[in-house]
Amino acid sequence: MSKWTLAQLPSLRGKTAIVTGANSGLGLETAVGLAAAGAQVVMACRSPERSAPALAELRRRVPGAEAELMTLDLGSLASVQAFATAFGARPLDLLVNNAGVMALPFQKTRDGFELQIGTNHLGHFALTGQLLPRLLATPAARVVTVASVAHRATKALDVEDLNWERRPYSKSDAYAKSKLANLLFMLELDRRLRLAGHGLISVGAHPGYSSTNIGLAGGEAPRHPLEKLAIRIGNALFAQSAARGALPTLRAAADPEVQGGEYYGPRGLFQFAGAPVRVNYHPRAGDPELARRLWARSEQLTGVHYLS
């Protein structure tokens, strides 16, 4: 099989894409790739003011790009709703659920959710539901949910304790569970869309081991300097670039051969690096009963109901 590259991206001229967390790393590289293919890109970021350099970088790398910043804090359901309202009735061809936080000490979102499940899963679950009418009204639209190889590192997902109220908190396990939730959601969304006969498809992607800032951010609890140093050394010695890490997402987003329910990642050892190909996921992610229960619990927690 020949390696898939950015040169194989089809023209996206006339299409509109939303990329969450497009202010740096994988999100910025995804936004740049989509803009270079001609898409109009909405960079959905918590702080448009602090994200202005990212927009300037995109425009520098893609002269004439159609791109804009919009405010979106996935840790706030009110912000998710406000974003969907501000986006309005525009056609939406592509939603890339990319933003995330990783392995943080216990914190809560504005709505009282554990920060990692709240941002990585529940915020994107609510956002997808709020934008679903725009996606369904646009022919051949897609939702791409970005997961991680870390979803394999957790043994279970207790949907009745997503917010870690009944057991000791583990920041690494909380991250792994949030990424497992991403895949359960992606696959359940695909099943529900198929059942309803919609043309919208749901696909997944992961970046392997890529050099980004996600491991350095600490939210309200800054990381220990030694932890930051270890992450920087790992990024320098072992990680592929953020540009290469974004390729599976870009392939999932635009390759015309992609089918609903597929999952794309690097083809190298342990799926850490390499050209983007269709990859497998842990059997837990493919459990339809667990996915159904997670969907119901997500609706209950967010108050956003769709495809029920």
SSE order and pairing:
Layout: E1 16-20, H1 25-36, E2 40-45, H2 48-61, E3 67-71, H3 77-87, E4 94-97, H4 115-136, E5 142-146, H5 171-196, E6 201-205, H6 225-238, H7 242-245, H8 247-254, E7 263-266, E8 276-278, H9 288-302
How would you portray this structure in words?
The chain is α/β, with parallel strands linked by helices and 308 residues long. The protein has one domain (11-300): 3-Layer(aba) Sandwich (Rossmann fold), CATH 3.40.50. Helix content is 41%, strand content 12%. It has an 8-stranded mixed β-sheet with strand order 3-2-1-4-5-6-7-8, with helices on both faces. Helix 3 (77-87) packs parallel to helix 4 (115-136). Residues 226-237 have low confidence and may be disordered.
Tell me the domain tally.
Answer: 1
Mean pLDDT: 92
Low-confidence stretches: 226-237
Number of helices: 9
CATH-defined architecture: 3-Layer(aba) Sandwich
Structural class: alpha/beta
Strand order of the largest sheet: 3-2-1-4-5-6-7-8
CATH H-level superfamily: NAD(P)-binding Rossmann-like Domain
Largest sheet: 8 strands, mixed
What's the CATH first level? Alpha Beta
This entry's quaternary arrangement is: single chain
Q: What is the CATH topology classification name?
A: Rossmann fold
The overall strand count is 8
Distance between the termini: 39 Å
Give the fraction of residues assigned to helices. 40-55%
Q: What is the beta-strand fraction?
A: 5-15%
Series of secondary-structure elements, N-terminal to C-terminal: EHEHEHEHEHEHHHEEH
Shape: globular
From the alpha-carbon coordinates, what is the Rg to the nearest angstrom?
Answer: 18 Å
